[in-house]
Amino acid sequence: MKKTTGTDRSVTRNWRPATRAVRGGTWRSEHGETSEALFLTSGYTYDDAQTVADRFAGDAQGMTYSRLQNPTVAMLEERIALMEGAQGCRAQASGMAAMTAALLCQLSAGDHCVAARAAFGSCRWLVDHLLPRFGIETTVIDSADDAAWEAAIRPNTKVFFFETPANPTLDIVDLAHVCGVAKAHGITTVVDNAFASPALQRPMEFGADVVAYSATKLMDGQGRVLAGAICGSEEWINETLLPFQRNTGPNIAPFNAWVVLKGLETLELRAHKQSENAVKLGEFLEPRVQKAGGHMLHPGLPSHPRHDLATKQMDATGPIFAFDVDTRERAFAILDALELVDISNNIGDARSLMCHPASTTHAGMEEDARTAMGVTEGLLRINVGLEDIADVTEDMDRALAVAGI
Asked: Residue 178: which domain range?
């Protein structure tokens, strides 16, 4: 199997983003296949004993074991790194495998992590429960308070961890400011970029050190497989992340990697069209929601407190937003009245999906923590898909009317 121009940095560095998403990281076998090959193997054979010894010693290139390398997975890693503008990438079994590995590979007992208050429920569980269990101190702050980041720093602070946009409250973090504060203090920034993907936002352009993904979301984009990814410098990937991954094994399956490769080919088209649809739906919903006493959480609308920052950092503001309708009963009434939009806790899908975070994605959090984050009993989160936006709007119009909005 030979590498093609898809992995030749002297060629790919001149490619534009859409080209990298389709052709970056492509290897071809002697058969000359156009679509990436799927390698379903756990191990490899060698021509002689010295070859395998050299590979395990790091003195020769080549595969050794699929917990360390797999051709299909390697293609995915190279493509995501190209799209992100990163030196390296390691794919993971899921988004939460990526978040867990990105933190545990570099934090030890006695270290301190500063994290954003607004985050996916499982990410908050890592910060609130898992890290402290291993003697790692954590502080949760309002990520929109720029001064709070520096104020939370301690002598043992090693990591800043945050999402932007955040799940599900769509908080926007000032990437340049927070990453600048971190660099000034020798702190590593870990950014969860799942709500945007590299098609809409590339945190490393603003100084981020590590970018982590649930590739299950926009990268696959069609609700098919679980996948994750972590991007960083070559040194950080090889010296900090790889020893952890090699010995703990949160690896993605080759089939899942292949599916995500196919999703990346259309990522830019989907992400921008879904963002456009989300703004249209948000503009329709906002006056209805506000008239009923609720409020919108949509970075693509001028009403968002950090709308200008979102449009500065992002190429488009993404397919996901949230709105509050005051009570769980009213939120459930809207969900139950939907005919086109599905009730689902997934996001990034080509289909429009809606859920009630307080009873699903954030149900495992303590109630006071949910409330402090802004995940109220009336909050609904919607992923706007690729359907005709007029059909989605009509479905939402009817559902709101049923709920008395």
From this structure: 2-264
